[in-house]
Design brief:
Blueprint (H helix, E strand, L loop, with lengths): L1 E2 H6 L4 E4 L18 E3 L3 H10 L6 E2 L9 E4 L2 H12 L17 E7 L2 E10 L16 H4 L3 H13 L4 E5 L3 E9 L2 E4 L3 E2 L7 H14 L28 E3 L4 E5 L2 E3 L4 E6 L2 E14 L5 E7 L2 E9 L3 H17 L11 E10 L5 E7 L4 E2 L2 H6 L1 H21 L12 E4 L4 E4 L7
Parallel strand pairs: 2-5, 3-10, 7-8
Antiparallel strand pairs: 1-4, 6-7, 8-9, 9-10, 9-11, 12-13, 13-14, 15-16, 15-19, 16-17, 17-18, 18-20, 19-20, 21-22, 22-23
Length: 425
């Protein structure tokens, strides 16, 4: 036996990944990062609450006194270890009225059975690096929270709950709903943290749910649909006027509006102007890829219509992850992200979304090209492809529809590049 305060303050047992799971579970539900806010003074409030409670009562020892190392290989095993170390329930034990399936739940044991108080989602720590991302991170990192936090929020909304959490075991973020469109997120609490520890944070969360665990929406919401901000470059000031002939645009790099002009932006406001020059593949109103000019640079613009929003978000997520590890002199094998957002105005493209990236040299890979480059060229190409795929794997990315069209090969230099990431997981 040991005092409750001693057990709560103890870090979690160390885990070691040993298995084959190489990518995180995927959810199509997203929460706009504009709805995410910092849960200020979270750690201080937890510590203050614990100081006001009597935790001297004796409880059974929950961990090995000499510590332990536990091996996990997939999300199911990690979830089981999470439940064992922190004493939670699985969703089958709660009286769920909605067909939702959170990984773990917090319940209270009433005479009527187990009533749901909070819900949680578990992601594997070797495929999703939650400890590196906070609600205060730059947008190109914060966007990586949209899908996993959106999954937890979907569970919270289905059961009208105020509290939830997202955890990789090695890092845990606690979520509190304050308003229809406001969700407060704590900083990531690490597995070995003290003052407060992860156990102390969950103890406090349980206490908060006793005080008030429900949140009733006053109107139907869609917290996942929003225009994406453009954060790669500073916004330019744009005004369109007419002198009786052709409209003029007050912006650098573009003097006149033409049938090939594309206005890109967010919130119905144009912040980027591009001039399309030719189609590479596809045609509107369907997905299309175009050559374009932006600020006097040749770029490539990839367009998705409104119904293909998920494909757009998947590819954008890949480029944002690549940008997070790209050194100043660039990353080999991949185009650089220039900007992205909504199609605000264009006679060429309908409503939809676009990603603008740097132009890569090369031609699509084919069997004929494979024969042309000879044995040495094949060897060099294979080495480069392995390195490029290794970069994607390091970001927990896997292409479930890989094919020759994803590879560009530049014959003069022997360089390889990977493109088209809308089927990534």
């Amino acid at each position: 036996m040991e005092p409750a305060s001693t057990q709560l303050s103890r870090p979690l047992p160390r885990l070691v990944q040993q298995g084959t799971t190489s990518y995180s579970s995927v959810c199509n539900i997203r929460l706009s990062r504009s709805c995410m806010h910092l849960w200020t003074n979270f750690a201080e409030d937890v510590c203050a609450m614990l100081q006001n409670l009597n935790l001297t009562g004796m409880v059974s020892v929950n961990d090995g006194l000499d510590g332990e190392v536990y091996y996990v290989g997939n999300e199911l095993g990690l979830t089981g270890r999470f439940l064992n170390s922190l004493r939670f329930s699985d969703y089958h034990a709660a009286n769920l009225e909605q067909p939702v399936f959170p990984d773990v739940v917090i319940v209270n044991d009433d005479v009527d059975g187990c009533n749901l108080r909070a819900v949680g989602e578990i992601k594997t720590f070797w495929t999703f690096h939650l400890h590196r991302i906070t609600v205060s991170s730059p947008d190109h990192l914060k966007v990586l929270l949209e899908a996993p936090i959106g999954q937890v929020v979907a569970y919270m909304r289905a059961s009208s709950l105020r509290y939830g959490f997202l955890s990789t075991y090695y890092a845990t973020v606690f979520i509190r709903r304050m308003d229809n469109y406001r969700f407060d997120l704590s900083p990531p609490i690490l597995w070995n943290a003290t003052q407060p520890s992860v156990r102390e944070c969950f103890f406090a969360l349980g206490f908060y749910t006793i005080q008030n665990c429900t949140f009733l929406e006053q109107e139907p919401l869609n917290v996942g649909v929003r225009p994406l901000p453009l954060t790669t470059f500073p916004a330019m000031s744009i005004s369109i006027t007419s002198n009786g002939s052709e409209p003029r645009v007050a912006a650098s790099g573009q003097s006149f509006v033409t049938p090939m002009t594309i206005f890109l932006g967010s919130d119905s406001k144009a912040t980027r102007i591009l001039e399309a020059t030719s189609f590479i593949s596809g045609r509107p109103p369907n997905k299309a890829v175009l050559h374009a000019v932006y600020q006097n640079y040749d770029v490539v613009l990839k367009f998705w219509p409104e119904q293909d929003f998920e494909y757009y978000m998947t590819e954008l997520d890949v480029y944002l992850r690549l940008e997070s590890i790209t050194p100043p002199d660039g990353l080999p094998y991949f185009a650089r992200l220039v900007c992205y957002g909504d199609i605000i105005c264009s006679s060429l493209l309908p409503k939809g979304y676009a990603i603008v990236m740097t132009k890569l040299r090369g031609e699509p890979f084919s069997d004929m090209l494979w024969r042309r480059i000879g044995p040495h060229g094949r060897f060099e190409m294979t080495v480069q492809l392995r390195e490029a795929i290794g970069i994607l794997r390091s970001l927990s990315l896997w292409n479930r529809d890989a094919s020759k069209r994803n590879v560009l090969y530049d014959m003069p230099t022997g360089g390889v590049a990977l493109v088209d990431f809308e089927q990534m997981e």
